[in-house]
Write a structure and sequence with these properties.
single chain, mainly beta, Immunoglobulin-like, five-stranded antiparallel sheet, repeat, Ig-like_fold, FN3_dom, ECM_Regulatory_Proteins
């Protein structure tokens, strides 16, 4: 059978070389209780070869064995890709890559449901070779000699103290080779081989021991490689001789014949006129010109080579190996049959993410991705200020568009559909806010603001979190950043412009010194590299008088209307409260973080509990609850709680993953982390009962700043990017339905390193 290599999915995996069966036949039955299985350990990842569209990877497993591996990387469009590899493999060839392109590969090992890694390596695909067209004899200087290419390294034989190695050089010529490995004490050893050789026997090894061999080619003072393989020396078996054995007959290799073919395989057969070989090796080149090798046991006289291209000519070379010596090759040429299958239908295209990349007072610039396939056309749909649906058609080769004719300072929900073969795919949705037209201190955005390039910092939402008779507390979100600083602008009681600078690491500010019972318009700008982005705007009215509390100070323990701590973990506190009478539009929980900065958490009107996350372990916090109704703020009522120490187990309340059911209403299911890279996590969730109008994913970034992502109600997956490597994050998912917020359900995930 084919034990040398096989194709799996879009990648070609390389099997670990199997030891000769004769070399490990002495097994003593254990007389003691077997030791528990060794936990596998992930070693180093190495790029061992490249072509214009592929990279060959190899890795080590110093101990144990993994159930499977996962290789992750990003393609030329920046889309994450993953290739699964069986646990008994130690290498893979990733194909379908771009020529002359740098890729960073991350390898993870999986064992008993646990993930280890990543081990990382960077490789560059070879430049695409141009085929010269027939022309007149060139008078230019000759091109430099072609760079030699190192092929595959194979173990061709073993003894108790040696391993025989063989390799190929598909192109060019090396000055010399070196074989490197580590002895039993971990010390590196080097064997030098002449450039005209293609095999060597490495001696002085330990019996019954696994060795990882690395082959390098030396050319013009540069080192190419390595090509790597695993080998196992034979176990020493000493049987006292009873008679003088006759010298063994030296085997002889006969003829190689192609016995049959199919669209993807060739069947080979050969003869051995005398003796017996330890094993055979069939070598050939695949459709891309890459050398391949298939190892066959010595007692076989035929093999079927599969994974070939239809209607393609292959030249097969057969080598026989005996006592570390190679004989051959015997050679034969075969042609695979033409394919009789009907061509598969083209792959269904996939619509990616839709993003707002820029705005002006009358336009929004949109950009999107197509991770797979190709669309015939796209349509962008939205509603104008009168609620009438509008449609913008875009050609299938485009990936961005500017939607014009919009109203200034207005929020729009954009839906993108892809059209393919008469069918509609999607939508991918996003929210965008047009700029304002006022040419003054409060709105310096020009009428034709140029679209910001992808990756530019971007603000998304400015909200009024709380008000008093002389202050307004504002909070905002940053879709992508960072900003150097922020600027809040407004006009005071006399109509004079005022500006409040805010540090770039903050997401909220309290504007004080305001007049009672007065309406204010606040504008928020983000500043980066002396360039101003925005603005976002929000209106607020200060209170006219001191309002009564939610509950009277006379009511203490167990009195209705009090705020209660219901549970704690090392990074969160659960709060619960009652409303003795009346109805509120919403609630706000306020507290101060470890730096003394005020934090605000808005809560929907139908909720009577909240989980405040992102806190410090074993720290005392004071929480203030306000009720908002008719533009007025009632409260606060207060409670104090101390987070659990780092090592404490989660409190029982944390096990609840959803809000209480509303009979017949929508209900969230489970939230899970389905994929990770060093700077992003992919979240997916289920809906036990639906539908929802939209979702909100909230989390705290590495600087303990709250972040939120708005997701369309038809989406159940989101890609959270811009994260820190090797960092644990906790995510909360809320579902929004008819103005109410349901949830949260939560999960934790850690980015790769």
């Amino acid at each position: 059978g084919d034990r040398g290599s096989r194709r799996e999915g879009g990648a070609q995996v390389r099997a670990r070389p199997a030891p000769d069966y004769e070399a490990v036949t002495t097994q003593v039955p254990p007389t003691t209780t077997p030791e528990p299985p060794v936990k596998p350990l992930l070693g180093e990842l190495t790029v061992t070869g490249s072509s214009p569209d592929s990279l060959s990877l190899s890795w080590t497993v110093p101990q144990g064995q993994f159930d499977h591996f996962l290789v992750q990387y990003k393609n030329g469009d920046g889309q994450p890709k993953a290739v699964r590899v069986p646990g008994h493999e130690d290498g893979v060839t990733i194909s379908g890559l771009e020529p002359d392109h740098k890729y960073k590969m991350h390898l993870y090992g999986f064992h008993d449901g646990q993930r280890q890694g990543p081990a990382s390596a960077t490789g560059v695909t070879a430049a695409e070779e141009e085929t010269p067209s027939p022309a007149e004899p060139s008078t230019e200087a000759p091109e430099p000699p072609e760079e030699p290419l190192l092929g595959e390294l194979t173990v061709t034989g073993s003894s108790p103290d040696s391993l025989s190695l063989s390799w190929t050089v598909p192109r060019g010529h090396f000055d010399a080779f070196t074989v490197q490995y580590k002895d039993r004490d971990g010390r590196p050893q080097v064997v030098r081989v002449g450039g005209e050789e293609s095999e060597v026997t490495v001696r002085g090894l330990e019996p019954g021991r696994k060795y990882k061999m690395h082959l390098y080619g030396l050319h013009g003072g540069r080192r190419v490689g390595p090509a790597s393989t695993l080998g196992l020396t034979a176990v020493t078996t000493q049987v006292p001789p009873t008679t003088t054995p006759e010298p063994p007959v030296k085997p002889l290799l006969g003829e190689l014949t192609v016995m049959g073919s199919s669209p993807d395989s060739l069947s080979l057969s050969w003869t051995v006129p005398q003796g017996q070989f330890d094993h055979f090796l069939v070598q050939y080149k695949n459709g891309d010109g890459q050398p391949k090798a298939v190892r066959v046991p010595g007692h076989e006289d035929g093999v079927t080579i599969s994974g070939l291209e239809p209607d393609h000519k292959y030249k097969m070379h057969l080598y026989g190996f005996h006592d570390g010596q190679r004989q051959g090759p015997a050679t034969a040429t075969g042609v695979t049959e033409p394919s009789t299958e009907a061509p598969e239908p083209p792959e269904e295209p996939l619509l990616g993410e839709l993003t707002v990349t820029g705005s002006s007072p009358d336009s929004l610039s949109l950009s999107w991705t197509v991770p797979r396939g190709h669309f015939d056309a796209f349509t962008v749909q939205y509603k104008d200020r009168d609620g009438r649906p509008q449609v913008v058609r875009v050609g299938g080769e485009e990936s961005e568009v500017t939607v014009r004719g919009l109203e200034p300072g207005r929020k729009y929900k954009m839906h993108l559909y892809g059209l393919h073969g008469g069918r509609r795919v999607g939508p991918a949705s996003t929210l965008g806010l047009t700029g304002c037209r006022t040419l003054s201190l409060f709105c310096s955005v020009p009428d034709a603001l140029p679209s910001e390039p992808p990756g530019a910092p971007r603000l998304v939402e400015l909200a009024v979190a709380a008000v008093t008779s002389d202050s307004v507390h504002l909070s905002w979100m940053v879709a992508q950043g960072p900003f150097d600083s922020f600027l809040v602008q407004y006009r005071d009681e006399q109509g004079q412009p005022q500006a409040v600078p805010v540090g770039g690491d903050l997401r909220e500010v309290t504007i004080s010194g305001l007049a009672p019972a007065r309406k204010y318009k606040f504008l928020l700008f983000g500043v980066q590299d002396a360039k101003r982005h925005g603005p976002l705007s929000a209106d607020a009215k200060t209170l006219s008088m001191h309002l009564s509390l939610l509950s009277s100070p006379r009511h203490k323990t167990s009195a209705p209307g009090e705020l209660t701590v219901t549970g704690v973990t090392p990074d969160s506190v659960g709060l619960s409260w009652t409303v003795p009478q009346g109805k509120f539009d919403s609630f706000v929980v306020q507290y101060k973080d470890r730096h003394g900065q005020p934090r605000v958490v808005p809560v929907a009107a139908d909720q009577r509990e909240a989980t405040i996350g992102g806190l410090e372990p074993h720290r005392k916090y004071r929480f203030l609850l306000y009720g908002l109704t008719g533009g007025k703020q009632l409260g606060p009522i207060t409670a104090e709680g101390t987070t659990a120490p780092e090592e404490d187990a989660p409190a029982p309340w944390q096990a609840a993953t959803g809000a209480p059911d509303t009979p017949g209403g929508p209900r969230l299911g489970e939230l899970a982390v389905t994929d990770s890279t060093p700077d992003s996590l992919r979240l997916a969730w289920t809906v036990a009962r639906g539908p929802f109008d939209s979702f909100v994913v909230q989390y705290w970034d590495a600087d303990r700043q709250p972040q939120a992502l708005l997701v369309g109600g038809d989406q159940h997956v989101v890609h959270v990017s811009g994260l820190e490597p090797s960092t644990a994050y906790k995510f909360f998912l809320y579902g929004l339905h008819e103005g109410k917020r349901l949830g949260p359900v939560s999960t934790e995930g850690t980015t790769g390193s």
